[in-house]
Amino acid sequence: MRWGQGWVQAWRGGVYLLGALLSGVVTVLALPLLCVPRLARLWADWHGERAGRLLGTPPAPAATRGRTARALLWLPVHAVTGLALGLPALLCAGNIVVGVIAASLWWAFGPDDGPKLFMDIPVHGWVTALTFGPLQIVLLSILAYLSFPPVARVHARICLAVLAHTAQEQLAERVAVLTRTRADVLDAHGAELRRIERDLHDGTQARLVAIALRLAVARQAFADNPRDEQLVAGLLRDAHEGTEEAMTELREVVRTVYPPILADRGLDGALTAVTTRCGIPTRLDMGELERVPAAVEAVVYFAVAEALTNVTKHSGATAAGVRLGRSADRLSVVITDNGTGGADDRRGTGIAGIRRRVHALDGTVVVDSPAGGPTAITVELPCGW
């Protein structure tokens, strides 16, 4: 991890822990109110989503759909873990602020009201302020850098573990997801068929009709006046040009159904072409994938192409990467960039389309895109059919 990314993770971890401390205090103070089933579920769901964002994994909304018992169990667990893990973070961050104040503004306080540093050391002069003050800032900053991210992840994992599904609930949730994705696939399939029919009818078919008319006119003209070669040649030239235009349109229609480049070059060559055409430098790393079903190849191709298009248009990144690997019957694709982050399905950035394609094959999509970046989109697909 780069130094800058490490500080970003430390900042995110610190904000998460301070938020956990604050919400833990709220949980203790408002416990009777939060024991109301609906409020308990909303409170637990919010923490599940928050933990999922920190870990970069889909949250486990086990408290929803009537599963109130798990939400009520989460209340005392969060009250204990939020206070126990958040309070040290507050002390660390607070003493960093104290160090800054002591090093720069000690003179603004009275002799008995000034800030105090390590081991209750009072600051009454510049020597103490400029030695112990920066020392306290540096040591506590290093402590925050090293401890905030793992401690925050511990709390997030506890949250998700308490709110996790049972085997039966996981099966029910899986059935619900498959039902939704099946409906989405059927809708998308119907829309795609209508689009192809419209493209063929309005474009290719219209051109073919025009070609047929030109050829009929040419035949009639040749029958009426065989010596008028210029007229016949002009009609045949128009028909030939129309044929080429119809073939071009037909190729474009076919390309949207299944990219010919996949059939010509395979997944490796297709992704090489996509990353080469990307508007920013993009590195492609491909492990040993063995045989991959054609449907999975198409989804991977479209997902990478869409993600890199988003990177070029929206992220402000200067570099991107695509990494493919396979573990047993799961194919994983990770698309990264060093842009500004903040990728969100609801903003029309194409991630929703990627999710629909991936979910149709019973795959998963995880987006880790904090404000300020970097962004990582992880796609996993089953490929052991």
From TrEMBL:
Catalysed reactions listed for this entry: ATP + protein L-histidine = ADP + protein N-phospho-L-histidine
Domain Signal transduction histidine kinase subgroup 3 dimerisation and phosphoacceptor: 192-260
Name of this chain's protein: histidine kinase
Gene3D superfamilies for the chain: 1.20.5.1930, Histidine kinase-like ATPase, C-terminal domain
EC assignment: 2.7.13.3
Annotated GO MF terms: kinase activity
CDD domains in the cross-refs: HATPase_UhpB-NarQ-NarX-like
